[in-house]
Design brief:
The structure is a homodimer of 235-residue chains. The first copy, chain A, is an alpha/beta fold and 235 residues long. Helix content of chain A is 40%, strand content 18%. The longest helix of chain A is centred in the N-terminal third of the chain and has 19 residues. Chain A binds a DNA duplex (22 and 22 nucleotides) through helix 1, helix 3 and strand 2. Chains A, B: Its main location: cytoplasm.
Chain lengths: 235, 235
DNA sequence: ACTTGTGAAACTTTTCACAGCG
DNA sequence: CGCTGTGAAAAGTTTCACAAGT
């Protein structure tokens, strides 16, 4: 019954997270005029192994042709549909600091199915000003016209992030992208993804340190040793 | 032999990725004067389950006290050491567009063990200008003084990203944070982490669409349907 | 002949549940 | 008694290898 041409509820999360990468790779291939691609080639373009790619695509259904490969246009459509990109989703960016500014101006959203529709800040000096073609409003103004399916992007300082999240949830938002370096508490049914820049660097630092340890003592480290008030910790 | 007070090579990747979150939670607790914390409390602050937290910490060694909990200062030091944060790592940001600018000005790096030391761009109009207290240089200038342990942050357009990565690798960098929406090919031993903003939104769109499907047909969708040249696909 | 789609195996990560220790 | 640390079970993810289809 529910066995129509797509996967029955339950595409693994790891697969969902890779679909955007495949989509990007397919867009690149389409742009260069390729119209059929093998799992081997597409996997190469996406930076994964071909078996993984095939397994991932198998969750969406059978869109390949054995002995031939995948039709670039068709596969692109199927993935886009699975991701819900037949709609142009509205995005509200909250917090117009450096990062909020950069996000508002980022052209990569528009080209990939998203429309930045609201820019929000609480600072009265910013409210009313124009950034990237939009007028900055405050949270109250946003709350008067919250569209269903809005995605909220939090780019405030961490101290403000939780209360912004609360207000977004209150107005019916259930997808949030959080750039503030803090944990957000939200009710069930609200999906939060986080991007923490310092965290990413710390993970790299771990690998850097351990790669280094293979090669011998950390003698030639140009990274500056922290030699400051660390005494208070040891005394 | 190699059984000193830390984990023997092989902390799971999933655990490493969470250590920065624990570190942040501990910093928060330390700031409010708490000096002992149970796995339950710390897990709550970090947004994970306590069993997972304890398992993660067990890879670092036994730093808790049964019946009591963990010493906040001690645990913080141990995690920081494991992540290699006893050093201040140098960071070079390549690509001084909107995002590069925002990253250069981001104060969150300095407070978490990283020092943005070089800003790089190829545009002659930018080279020599000052951003966030630093003078913008070009890749050639960076190549003349590449410190060991440098972390490269790529914030260029995707078309330039691969060649920037190649040059970074050439000068001995083996940790790269890539903001450009493309796959980078690098040799073994070079660690690349990527942050793709549109990808994150697409993953949210997937969940948004499927959460919505639970509640019935997509009637009240305020996300604008893409009603353009999609006919060519159906005809 | 060639490439997909997929069971089964291998590996990783999370969760459970309780022994062990302060 | 309470909380950590950890084996063992469960769940999730990746890889293998080949049968099945064109």
């Amino acid at each position: 019954m529910t066995d129509a041409p797509a996967a029955r509820r339950g595409i693994p999360g790891a697969t969902v997270a890779r679909l955007p990468v495949y989509l990007r790779a397919l867009a690149g291939l389409a742009a260069t005029g390729v119209d059929t691609v093998s799992s081997e080639e597409l996997a190469e373009a996406a930076g994964v192994r071909s078996a993984k790619l095939r397994k991932d695509l198998s969750y969406l259904g059978s869109y390949g042709v054995r002995g031939v490969g995948y039709d670039v246009v068709r596969l692109r459509e199927e993935i886009a549909r699975e991701l819900g990109l037949q709609y142009d989703w509205s995005v509200a960016i909250i917090g117009m600091g450096n990062l909020g500014h950069a996000l508002a101006a980022y052209s990569g959203f528009a080209t990939r199915g998203f429309r930045v529709t609201w820019l929000v800040d609480e600072d009265p000096n910013l409210v009313g000003s124009r950034i990237a073609g939009l007028t900055v409003i405050d949270m109250d103004a946003l709350a008067t016209q919250p569209p269903a399916g809005l995605i909220g992007v939090i780019a405030t300082p961490p101290t403000a992030a939780q209360s912004v999240a609360d207000r977004l949830v209150e107005m019916g938002v259930h997808s949030i992208l959080n750039f503030a370096p803090c944990v957000l508490a939200v009710p069930d049914g609200v999906e939060v993804r986080k991007v923490d820049l310092a965290t990413e660097l710390q993970i790299l630092a771990f690998h850097e340190q351990h790669a280094r340890a293979e090669l011998g003592p950390l003698a030639d480290l140009a990274a500056v040793e922290v030699a400051d008030a660390r005494q208070e910790a040891t005394s």
